[in-house]
Amino acid sequence: MVQRSREVLRSDALDVAEELMVASGPRGLSMRELAERVGVSRQTLYSEFGDRGGVASALVLRCTERFLSRIEAALAAETDLHAAWVAAVGAALTESAANPLTKALLTGEGAAPELFGADSGPIVAAATDRSVAYLRRAFPDLDPSAVDLAAETATRLTVSHIVLPRHPPEQVAEQVATVVVRVLRP
Asked: Which residues form the HTH tetR-type domain (predicted)?
């Protein structure tokens, strides 16, 4: 029971912290206000997260996990290689457009540099790794070096379009999927 309460507290605190960050930027993440809005003492938050930086780190981890899980689910929902990548890129573009914190983490804009740093490298690496794992699991006959190249290329192209959108998301998803399939099945 205590463990469940701690999980609920953590989730609630991160929900409110994300709201504060989106509404007011990095300065909006105040442990005092967070504690008031969650309905706990500041000491409870400090015990759970350490400090404001700990809350920010937990937000990064949760946001990254949600982002990557959405992409992985989109890949896994399709059996056709091209359709899987259209779905995955579409999911990444949709998630980053819908969630300001995700976009900030990937682009280094808004709250990201002050609280999280401007390096999206760990997210890009994790997205690449999950894509590689999916491809190797779903299409074991593919050349492993081509899988590595395709996954990293797709990830970097997608992030590039998140940072500097040039075309509608549907067109970007189709283009990236086409590149991936051509790398994997020349």
From this structure: 7-67
